[in-house]
Write a structure and sequence with these properties.
The structure is a homodimer. By secondary structure, chain A is an alpha+beta fold. Helix content of chain A is 43%, strand content 23%. Chain A has a six-stranded antiparallel β-sheet. The first copy, chain A, binds a DNA duplex through loops.
Amino acid sequence: MRKIFLFMDTIFNKVDAKGRVSLPSDYRAIVKELSTEIVCYRSLSAPCIEGCLEETLDKLATDIENATDFFSETQDNLTNLIFGDAKRFTFDSTGRIVLTEKLLRHAQISDTAVFVGKGRKFQIWNPENWAKEEARIRAEVMAHRPVLKAAKDEQ
Amino acid sequence: MRKIFLFMDTIFNKVDAKGRVSLPSDYRAIVKELSTEIVCYRSLSAPCIEGCLEETLDKLATDIENATDFFSETQDNLTNLIFGDAKRFTFDSTGRIVLTEKLLRHAQISDTAVFVGKGRKFQIWNPENWAKEEARIRAEVMAHRPVLKAAKDEQ
DNA sequence: TTATTATTTATGGTATATCATGGTATTTTA
DNA sequence: TAAAATACCATGATATACCATAAATAATAA
């Protein structure tokens, strides 16, 4: 089995009237090689869709199982929110998934979707929102550059 | 055998006069693939029905047998409640289960049931109650953002 | 390098299968 | 035998799988 998998790059794909989008071919290759599936959900922190491998969520479910007992309410809220929102997406022979109305609305996506790699996860943005977000992140990282450097030096 | 099984998504289905509801097809696929059954019981903490795979309850029974240290009186009482309340639900050729009066009353469900995925478990809600509950959870999770972040980072 | 060809990928359209749901028949059991 | 529970059938709506073409990328030869 593949040791390394990383969602990378930024890809612009068309979304048709039915919500169909081609999953970037690199992403598809990962899914195939690991014989798993993609899971998507509304990001809790931004107006975008978040995606990961099903096994990533499975790991989370197992962690929760082990960390708490069957009746625990500690993580109860979290599981409702995450798993209640998440949905499995399989792609057809041409490599497309069909995004739901709920997800598209949350990310304000109409005719174009931007896939942004995040390593173990990826995000799907509306092009304009992503442009703004990228600029914001760049600015913030630049502003915190010295802190980042200091943190590295400390190790 | 399937590597991963997760109850996910939020699905609204009709409940007819006999208490019949379609089990979401994704849920049915899991039951079929693992050749097990669905078990439902009244949630101990909320006005909803809780469901899981029979083998999940079996695991719970085993865990309690083995974990003598944690065999507290309260846990013992809880298991009495769960196992005493739990009931197997098989679906017919069209994929429907028939919920009992007791369960429907507890969840205040009349004509529509909302299936909410929770990973290894799922819940069945009355639509209005679920809307309120979801809002409550969202608010609470946002307030405890740092905890969420820590939990997410662990995966 | 540049031109040409071969492959893979993206995307529009359509046929097909699946699903949810109302209804009916059959079996169970009280 | 009546009442209830269960299994089966029918249908419209929806989602899925498949086909065809265009675009883009990679590979090969000049």
